[in-house]
Amino acid sequence: MIYLVHGDDSLSSRRFLFRLKSGYDQVVDITGKNISKERLELALFSESLLAKKILVVVEDLKNWQEIKGLKLNNASDLVFWFKNKIELPDFPINRVILFDLRQANAFKLADALLMKNEKLSLLTLSSLLKQGEPAEKILGTIGFAFRNLALTLEGNLEKIVRNSYAQEKIKQQANFWTMPQISLAFDAIFTTDLRLRQREHNPSMELLALINTLFTLSKRDASEVKDTNKIT
After folding, report:
1. Segment 202-229, tens digit of pLDDT
2. Inter-residue long-range contacts of 146-150, CB under 8 Å, 24+ positions, other chains counted
3. Which of 41, 67, 183, 202 is the most buried (most CB within 10 A)?
């Protein structure tokens, strides 16, 4: 699998890259400044007794001509990451993931979820999937939003958000959730993440199931979720 991850929203793309790396036994990071085809091939075809899944990450490749003719058959997975948006290269990329600040993004979905607006959440998810938003990116944004919500309920809001408008929005969202509910939400998000990494399940259906699960548990009161570790 060869990924191209790029776009002006480098914060989100870095977050996506971090999550992608966590699914591999070994990660090889290479700067794209002075790369050579030989060096990259060495990384792509290196073998390890301890690592079954290896990911090679090339950051900010300066010249695609430097790796022209790169051998890719039976190679490790490869990611080309760029901090800005680039023109699509003449290279056999399997998956292009664009993090564009101008696009409607998954944060709108996260906001709708935290405000417990089920209709808007489902409509937003449908729109994101139609425009080709990666399932991993959507899931990562949802997880990030629930993390901030948990920190807010723990009294650490000022440590994560300084903007007064954002603080008020998170405080409002926090009124709709309890810590037991958030704990179950994390379990559901983690389970979905594992299923997506297995690549044996339909990403759209997995995300839809997650949204339905989150709204099911969000309707439970504190006594129902206090001592439970799974949704029944």
Report:
1. 999 999 999 999 999 888 754 454 444 4
2. 146/114, 146/182, 146/185, 146/186, 146/189, 149/114, 149/173, 149/174, 149/177, 149/182, 150/179, 150/182, 150/186
3. 67
